[in-house]
Structure formats: structure tokens, C-alpha cells
């Protein structure tokens, strides 16, 4: 993932939103500008409560005949039900296609080279979330320009029955299978929060630092917008806590999730994700700390081990 090309497990749930009113319908529910999407484009967005708290984050892909949503796996059925509750007279249908469609990730600086060796040339200037219809390993596929885990790559979306053949052709072209622990380390090094670990239903998007990717400042109203605008404009973006990167001495152990972060006797927050970083040769973590302690270089302690608040990404 750092020096070559890795095949990455992509376990998200997938929801397909059909109907002529799909973009306008999602425009009023999601934080990003869905109405501006054109066929073959996409964006990252969040679904919020009226209080501005996150229900989920997701990737939104306009395919031309439908919109494909990638959402956290365990939330797929509940998000489908949530979306269906808001369909009244609109021409909108929401279908869970998680079992029917598979997603194979290919990430790293050689990902494009591997795709070419597998018989697929891709546009060098393809923008993030660009969707290209192609044939790969003899199967119809959607090739999505992606950076989901924090490094550049592609997601290959195919019918579930074709996924094994796609993985095999990518491996034959030079990609290696990445272990879940390796993917987690790269994600944390890259400062990319994951819903269910670093974000949950108590999180405001600005606390997690995803506002630049997930929130449009120019679109019309959406659920939760009033709270977000109030924090951004009246509060100048100040929230009580912020997600930060943490690095530790090489001799320290990897902290457990929910371990308390201290500065002296003061409790600042908690660790949300942690791993051993092969790149930095030391433990690294993501965690929330009080807004007065977010400056890089701030000394902290976790379980008695000395650490430092570090700018994201960590590498």
C-alpha cells in the first residue's frame, strides 16, 4: 500500500437508489452537493440527525441510471430503512445490493500499473470518485477512483460471483493481498477516521475533521445543517473536542481502544483507533482530545506511556 499495489478487503454495505428524483431526494438528506453530481462522478458525504450528529458516512456514486451508496457494513439495513422512511411522493426506490455486488480494493502507488497489466488502461487524470465502466477479467466492472483508506487507489465493483476472478487477475498482475491489520495501520497513519471506531452517533462531523471532504457550504438545506452552520459561522469552527493523531515512543505498547489520554493529571479524551506503524516503527493512534490540546507537539500520556499529538496524516 505504500510502495506497490495491494488487494484490500472492502466490506462496506451497498445500497442502490433508483428513480428520477434520486438526486433531489438525497440532496435534502446528505451533507454534500448530491444534486451537482453527473453520471460517472461521486462524492463523500454524511447522513445526520436534526441535531447534527452522525448517523453514518458514505460514498455516493452517480452511475447514470442509479446512485450507489457505500455505507458501513453493519448499518446497511438500518440506513436503507431510514432512507425509505423519507420517501413520500418522490420517484425513489432504495435497494440493498450488498450480497449481489462485491467490491475489490486495489491501493498503492502501483495500482494503476497493475490495472494496466490486467488489461485495463485508466485515465491518468481521473478525479477522485470518478466511475468508469469497463471489462476486467472478462467481467463487467465499475472502476472507481478512490482513497478510502487514506492512500490512492481504485475500487473494482463487480457481481459477487465475479469477485474471485477479479482478485485472481489482479494478483497475477502483481498485486498482493493485504491483511486487515496492515490496512488498519495505513488508515490510522493516513488520519482517515472510520465510522464505528473514530466516529459514531455522538460525533459531529467537524469534531472528526471530515468537513472539507463531506460538507458542502454552498448547497441548499439538509437535515442537520442548522447545527453545522452555527458551529462553522458563529462558533468559527470551534468544537469541544477534536480528532487528532498520536505517536508514541517505539518502546511503548500499542494502546487499547478507549484508553484514556492524559496531560499530567488532566483527562483529555480517549483513544479511538491504534496500531503498530511499520512506516514509523512506533505505535500510532487516533483519538479525541479537548480543543485546548490539539496543537502538534503537545505531550500526552496513555497508560503511563509518553506520546505526542501529531499532525495528520502521520506519514
What does this structure look like?
The two termini are 13 Å apart. Strands 8-9-10-7-1-11 form a six-stranded mixed sheet, with helices on one face. Helices cover 19% and strands 35% of the residues. The radius of gyration is 20 Å and the shape is globular. The longest helix is centred in the N-terminal third of the chain and has 10 residues, at 76-85. Strand 13 and strand 14 (266-277) form a beta hairpin. It has two domains: 1-236, Gyrase A, domain 2; 240-315, Aminomethyltransferase beta-barrel domains (Elongation Factor Tu (Ef-tu), domain 3). The mean pLDDT is 96. With 315 residues, the protein is an alpha+beta fold.
- Count of discrete alpha- or pi-helical segments spanning 4 or more residues: 8
Supply Rg: 20 Å
Number of domains: 2
Largest sheet: 6 strands, mixed
Roughly how much helix do the residues carry, as a percent range?
10-25%
Query: What oligomeric assembly is this protein in?
Result: single chain
Can you tell me the overall shape? globular
| CATH superfamily membership of the largest domain | Probable tRNA modification gtpase trme, domain 1
Structural class: alpha+beta
Mean pLDDT: 96
Amino acid at each position: 500500500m505504500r510502495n506497490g499495489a495491494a488487494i484490500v478487503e472492502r466490506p462496506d454495505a451497498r445500497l442502490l437508489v433508483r428513480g428520477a428524483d434520486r438526486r433531489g431526494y438525497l440532496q435534502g438528506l446528505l451533507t454534500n452537493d448530491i444534486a451537482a453530481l453527473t453520471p460517472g462522478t461521486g462524492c463523500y458525504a454524511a447522513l445526520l440527525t436534526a441535531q447534527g450528529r452522525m448517523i453514518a458516512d458514505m460514498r455516493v456514486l452517480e452511475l447514470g441510471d442509479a446512485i450507489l451508496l457505500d455505507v458501513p457494513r453493519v448499518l446497511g439495513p438500518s440506513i436503507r430503512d431510514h432512507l425509505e422512511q423519507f420517501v413520500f411522493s418522490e420517484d425513489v426506490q432504495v435497494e440493498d445490493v450488498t450480497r449481489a455486488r462485491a467490491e475489490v480494493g486495489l491501493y498503492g502507488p502501483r495500482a494503476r500499473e497493475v490495472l494496466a497489466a490486467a488489461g485495463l488502461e485508466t485515465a491518468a487524470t481521473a478525479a477522485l470518485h470518478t466511475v468508469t465502466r469497463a471489462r476486467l477479467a472478462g467481467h463487467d466492472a465499475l472502476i472507481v477512483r478512490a482513497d478510502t483508506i487514506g492512500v490512492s487507489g481504485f475500487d473494482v465493483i463487480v457481481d459477487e460471483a465475479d469477485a474471485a476472478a477479479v482478485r485472481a487477475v489482479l494478483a497475477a498482475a502483481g498485486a498482493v493481498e493485504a491483511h486487515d491489520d496492515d490496512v488498519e495501520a495505513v488508515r490510522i497513519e493516513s488520519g482517515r477516521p472510520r465510522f464505528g471506531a473514530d466516529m459514531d452517533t455522538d460525533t459531529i462531523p467537524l469534531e472528526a475533521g471530515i468537513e472539507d471532504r463531506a460538507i458542502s457550504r454552498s448547497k441548499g438545506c439538509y437535515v442537520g445543517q442548522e447545527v453545522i452552520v452555527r458551529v462553522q459561522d458563529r462558533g468559527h469552527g470551534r468544537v469541544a473536542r477534536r480528532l487528532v493523531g498520536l505517536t508514541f515512543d517505539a518502546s511503548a505498547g500499542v494502546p487499547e481502544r478507549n484508553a484514556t489520554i492524559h496531560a499530567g493529571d488532566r483527562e483529555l479524551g480517549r483513544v479511538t483507533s491504534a496500531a503498530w506503524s511499520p512506516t514509523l516503527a512506533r505505535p500510532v493512534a487516533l483519538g479525541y482530545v479537548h480543543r485546548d490540546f490539539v496543537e502538534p507537539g503537545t505531550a500526552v500520556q496513555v497508560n503511563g506511556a509518553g506520546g505526542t499529538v501529531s499532525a495528520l496524516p502521520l506519514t
